[in-house]
Amino acid sequence: MEQQGPMRIAVLVSGGVDSSVTLRLLAAEGHEVHAFYLKVWLADEMAHLGTCPWEDDLRYARAVCEQIGVPLTVVPLQQAYHEKVVATVLEELAAGRTPSPDIGCNRHVKFGAFFSELDRLGQTFDRVATGHYARVERDGTPQPRLLRGVDPVKDQTYFLYRLDAAQVARLVFPLGHLHKAEVRALAESLELPNRARPDSQGICFLGGIRYDDFVRASLGERPGSVRDAVSGRRLGRHRGVWFHTIGQRRGLGLGGGPWYVVAKDVEQDLVWVVHGDALQSWQARTFRIPSPRWITEPPAGLANGVSLTVKVRHSPVAVPCRVCLVSQADDDHYSTAMAGEDALEIELAEADTGLADGQPAVLYDGDVCLGGGVMTTGIDPRALPVKDLAGRDSHQLMR
User: For a pLDDT cut of 90, what percent of the chain falls above it?
Assistant: First the structure.
């Protein structure tokens, strides 16, 4: 956090340890803090699936605020969350892609609808703070830059890549320079009411509801065949392509494994798998990002290719890659729908078996999170089965 006098800061609290430590650190630094709890739980829509978890979260958030006399305001944003996050997730799942609800929530709700609500109420704050493990660099840069948190395991910039420069400029992340163990130790030393509370897992609006139950209630079941992508042999049945992800191994119910999901055909209701013995042939090193989103200005030299790193999933490691700006031609095997539009072609230093259409890919220059987009792999499930993998790249065969 930049060095300057006390500020008026809005702190988003969730009832968890990270946001609670954030609140206490800022208050200890002498800032005027006001806590906000964003209510996004869709109580009416999902009451039949399980109990409402937000009441416990809010109870802990209130206890933390009352401990030091900080005001707390509950902001209902269920409608914005349903329209901007849940509806998009279901649309992407139904299309066979792999969306990330947390990315949409950060872009459109936490730092979108909430900012708009503050502006509507005429409440002025110098900064908005959360418990994300990330950093904002302001000194010596034309625009604030989003940096990875120092704890590589907890770094959350992957889920923040869709923010724009104006959003980043309003933010502060007090935990970005800390490791998780240090945050837990602070919670103990501060005697926070929720210091023993475990970290939340899964998607925030689901609470304790199983993801598959939510998908089933929203999209239903549409059974189809599970087939071997090499031989074409039918191996079993599935309940719907949206229950499966690329790279999935567990939960397929197939004997003689291991088997891995490598493609999905929504139109034909097919899930394609390969045996572990053939998995190496399904590793890919290239994919594209149509219409990339940049937090600030894109790096120079993209037309000729630049060396960066990329995360193709939330992971401690960003993989070295070569990034080049390309124009998608009409006969491009990636997507004729994107013909004529600029895209980024990413070539990984190491092949990956879990690349999936619609999955976010986030680009970095050192610790700086540049932006990214959703990937398209060029895999055409209609070209399966491959049948002949000898000496050839299966992705090339499909293209």
Answer: 65
